[in-house]
Specification:
By secondary structure, the chain is mostly beta strands. The protein is built from 2 helices and 28 strands. It is globular and about 60 Å long. One of its GO terms (molecular function) is maltose epimerase activity.
Length: 338
């Protein structure tokens, strides 16, 4: 399973590269070292290759404006209330880049150019991305070494793994922000079915942060324990859904496998997701509106299943604290059938 590397631009003494992996079934995965980004997942069809994730029109577009599409978002994905992390009597203040809150790591890891290496054998291909994030960058303590890898195998499974280590006490909660649109580039997520192995979700306040603790999904539109239509939930007029203009909610996983199954009834395509992470934030691309660099993308065109630690209501971020010298290691797998 050879790997092709193509440089598509050079800026600021960095080569920006697109890496292509192909398995024996003809499935292709395209990656960018900008943001350790999953750019495209292409599956073979009778009419040629079809992309089943949301993508911009060209690799060059990804660095023109921040869009999170397939990026490795960190150091901390999501919002931190008032940008504050309190440990003991000490408060670390992070930049406020979302009103009165901090979001997606400030100028996050998805906006950085990673070094990379590739490996392949007869049955799988791997691209590994490395980033050094300096102490104090975006207000985060600690020199952090981040390693992100993607492995495509001949079973149409894509494995995404994040490893990191810091030399100071810090916080760390990254994810991949890929949006799936299983029916191809001229479709949306409303016709897809979603099943989650989750008994509880976190309601959100006006700042899109948890504020009431965990709630049972029983008897709510957030009950995905049996597969149901994403569009039916979006159009349910539940107050939480209307406030966010769609799904944007953390679901706490039971820990059994798989974590999630997203499927297309029309084209009989499925992605089965397993993960080491304890939660998934489900977001239906509510903000896309066919403007700017992402002018080819609209509201609800795709759905992202962000594997992570669930966001916290306040400044106690113990769950995402990384000790000096502690190895951070998590993974997510996406199994495609078509």
């Amino acid at each position: 399973m050879p790997i092709k590397v193509a440089r598509y631009q050079r800026k600021g003494q960095h080569d920006y590269c697109e890496i292509t992996m192909v398995n024996r079934h003809g499935m292709q995965v395209k990656l960018l070292n900008y943001g350790a980004t999953l750019e495209k997942v292409l599956i073979p069809t009778a009419r040629g290759l079809e992309n089943v994730i949301m993508s911009l029109e060209s690799p060059e577009d990804y660095s023109k404006a921040r869009n999170f599409l397939g990026g490795t978002v960190g150091r901390v994905v999501g919002r931190i209330r008032h940008g504050q992390w309190q440990h003991g009597n000490h408060i670390v203040q992070l930049p406020l880049n979302d009103g009165q809150n901090h979001i997606h790591g400030g100028t996050g890891t998805d906006t950085q150019v990673f070094d990379f290496s590739t490996q392949y054998d007869e049955h799988q291909s791997t691209a590994t991305f490395i980033l050094f994030d300096a102490d104090g960058n975006n207000g985060y303590p600690g020199n952090l070494k981040l390693q992100v890898s993607y492995t495509l195998d001949d079973d149409n499974q894509l494995t995404y793994r994040i490893r990191a280590i810091s030399d100071k006490l810090t916080i760390f909660n990254p994810t991949n922000h890929v949006y799936f649109r299983l029916n191809g580039p001229h479709s949306d997520a409303l016709g897809l079915n979603l099943q989650l192995n989750s008994d509880a979700y976190l309601p959100l306040d006006a700042d899109s942060l948890p504020y009431q603790g965990r709630r049972s999904v029983e008897g709510t539109v957030f009950d995905f324990r049996r597969a149901k239509s994403v569009g039916a939930v979006i159009n349910s007029h539940d107050s939480q859904i209307d406030a966010e203009r769609g799904l944007n909610h953390p679901f706490l996983l039971r820990g059994d496998s798989p974590a999630a199954v997203l499927s297309s009834p029309d084209k009989k395509r499925t992605v089965v997701m397993t993960t080491k992470s304890p939660a998934i934030v489900v977001y239906t691309g509510n903000h896309f509106d066919h403007t700017g660099i992402a002018k080819n993308l609209g509201q609800y065109d795709g759905i992202t299943l962000e594997a992570q630690m669930p966001p916290a209501a306040g400044s106690d971020l113990t769950a995402i604290t990384l000790l000096p010298g502690e190895q951070f290691d998590t993974w997510t797998k996406w199994q495609f059938t078509y």
